[in-house]
Design brief:
Blueprint (H helix, E strand, L loop, with lengths): L1 E6 L2 E7 L9 E7 L2 E3 L7 H7 L7 E3 L5 H4 L2 H8 L2 E4 L4 H4 L7 H6 L9 E2 L3 E3 L4 E6 L8 E5 L4 E5 L16 H13 L4 E4 L8 H24 L4 H9 L4 H5 L6 H8 L5
Parallel strand pairs: 4-5, 5-6, 6-7, 11-12
Antiparallel strand pairs: 1-2, 2-3, 3-4, 8-9, 9-10, 10-11
Bound molecules: zinc ion (ZN).
Amino acid sequence: MISATPYGEVLQIRMSRYPDFPTGAWVCAYLVDGLLVDTGPAHTAEELVRFLHDKAVKVAVNTHFHEDHISANKFLQDAYGIDIYAHPLAIDKINKAAKLYPYQEEVWGYPVPSEVKPIGDHIDTESHRFEVIPTPGHDLDHICLFERKNGWLFTGDLYVTTKPVVCRPNDDMWQVIADLKKLRALNPRIIFPAPTHVVKDPAEKLDRLITYLEELGARIEELYSNGMSSEHIRQEIFGEEGFIAEMTQQQFSSLNLVKSFLKKHR
Ligand SMILES: [Zn+2]
């Protein structure tokens, strides 16, 4: 299912196979001035193509290679002949058959491989310039897009909540903190995230998130230096894993979050 909400010139396009599912089963693309930021999951790819038939989409960008951000690429290229850009490190991954966990296949579906072009340091539309901000904390190929005149910041999967308690194995939380500080310094007026609602008070939310993560990281480091194992630290801070960890075959877990802060010790 697709639903759309305008935020001024920016159209949020929310996509989900399971719209009634409480959390984590929907993702957003954004359309602004002919630029589509992310193309969503496979299960809604054909619906997205139909939705965009009268929207004059001219070009697309993938914020990173994950399957819920790239999977309408091939359909959009076939239907509208558009160019799609991504970070150079994402190109091969997007053009290769993906290997997904069962939950990913169920919720998002398998992407059809597609050919995308390496993005430079900005992308221009008719009326706007979008600066490319490398933000490798979520994955090495992750980028954000910033439109300076209006303060629009498109954050892909970098921003989810002000108090995350789980993450994926590849997340690097110290790098995420550095990325968030870089975004905060841009002074965005509004944040358009992929996995959650539009953020209209970005300074306050980013400050809270950065403080939370820095304090969490310091606590984890301290417990580790006292000789605690990652599992023990997870138990001490977060308790037992919740149902998200079980549902995602431990791809989103509190243990991953603890380990992410301790990567440099391995
Ligand atoms: Zn992602």
